[in-house]
Design the sequence.
């Protein structure tokens, strides 16, 4: 995992804030590995990639069904031998959820 730390005093050659790779099991650093100054671990937002288009969903192995009528859906991410039209109650028209990526 990559964690972000901030110097409590002046910045060193790593900068005021810096990233440091360590195991999730490791205790947070208390001293800068470069200059030995006191530091604190920052809370950072994780980097998450959110698919924004049907083609991105499809390439990541997701299925997206769009309702077209009562009990009728279109699989806009259908792949290979999957049916494009899904009818509720007709298991043979359902997407293959075990296909993986």
Sequence:
């Amino acid at each position: 995992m990559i964690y972000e730390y901030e110097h409590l005093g002046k910045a060193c050659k790593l900068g005021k804030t810096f990233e440091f790779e360590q195991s999730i099991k490791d205790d947070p650093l208390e001293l800068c590995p470069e200059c030995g100054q006191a530091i604190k671990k920052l809370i950072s937002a994780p980097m998450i990639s959110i698919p924004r288009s049907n083609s991105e969903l499809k390439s990541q192995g997701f299925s997206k069904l769009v309702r077209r009528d009562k009990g009728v859906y279109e699989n806009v991410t259908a792949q290979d031998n999957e049916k494009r039209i899904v009818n509720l109650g007709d298991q043979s028209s359902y997407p293959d959820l075990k296909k993986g990526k």
